Amino acid sequence: MVKYRHSCYYRSKIGRQWLPSKLECEAMGAHLLVVTDSEENDFIYNVLFRDEPNFQIFIGGFRLMEESTYQWITGEPWTFANWNPLEPSLAVWDTGESEECVCITGQWNWTDIPCNQTRMFVCEF
């Protein structure tokens, strides 16, 4: 666990789908990571994942299927994002899966992916 500002961050050791990740964080009294500004985003890359340049993690951003806007699981305003230039794509895969969950990648950007994909995750306390 690592402290930054007024929060502590727990990095998962195994990957899960988005909903089980969310539930695991909640069982610990936390929530999936909510990134509110560029400094926090830089902290994620430079401190939590400096030793793992190809990481991919779920964060607490999601899109309701019938909407095109993203929101945070905490209800905080969506005032910051670090999307890859081609994201969010809101794509539907050949399998019929919609990209509704937000993932941070080791390329210093965010992408939307299907929620049933398996990724590591970060809980924020």
From TrEMBL:
Coiled-coil segments on the chain, per record: none
InterPro entries: C-type_lectin-like, C-type_lectin-like/link_sf, C-type_lectin/snaclec_domain, CTDL_fold
SUPFAM superfamilies listed in its UniProt record: C-type lectin-like
Domain C-type lectin residue range list: 4-124
Name this polypeptide is given: C-type lectin domain-containing protein
Xref: Pfam families: Lectin_C
